Amino acid sequence: MCGNNMSAPLPAIVPAARKATAAVIFLHGLGDTGHGWAEAFAGIRLPHVKYICPHAPTMPVSLNMRMSMPSWFDIYGLSAEANEDESGIKRASENIKALIDQEVKNGIPSHRIMLGGFSQGGALSLYTALTTQHKLAGVVALSCWLPLRKSFPQASANGANKEMHVLQCHGDADPLVPFIFGSQTVEKMKSLINPANVTFKTYRGLPHSACPEEMVDVKRFIEKHLPAIRDE
Hints:
Blueprint: E1 12-14, E2 22-27, H1 35-42, E3 49-53, E4 58-61, E5 67-70, H2 86-105, E6 113-118, H3 120-131, E7 138-142, E8 165-171, H4 179-192, E9 198-203, H5 212-225
Parallel strand pairs: 2-3, 2-6, 6-7, 7-8, 8-9
Antiparallel strand pairs: 1-3, 4-5
């Protein structure tokens, strides 16, 4: 009965350059690992922030003819009407909440922890932030969507994170997760949390990937919502 997190290797970590007083947990996309994102965050790191990039477990993915690859949960299709792997999404979310618990035990309060992710990882980070009891600093959601969106009635996020800050980024030339998914997700998020705290950045001509301009926006968002503490 070991959980999903037992079958994946330990996360890639970019340690803080001094005492860590904040953390970013960032989840990669389908078929990827945390290593590339750890390298990306090493390039925009803040000295007081620890960056944790876990690796998804390997599982057969229905979308890709049931080939096994790193995946946070199964994906049946990429249309808005596609069925979703509800139990897999919830199980993966519990594993991410366990990572948050671990950092809190390590001495970083949850309101100094930010979730984030790209594509499938971004989807999981949004879902986790809306369902956790931990008060988080915010979410960085890149090229993604909100899974199980019908399970969130308006204002269901009256819990810990209705005032959290969200940065959503999407390329307008994304052929895999269409731009409209990003813009519809932003509208849904604005109905669930304080709409003034939701920022949507779009990147002209960007396909299903990240770009340097976007990473600068991510760095500024982290800097703003996880500032250095004076007595560090």
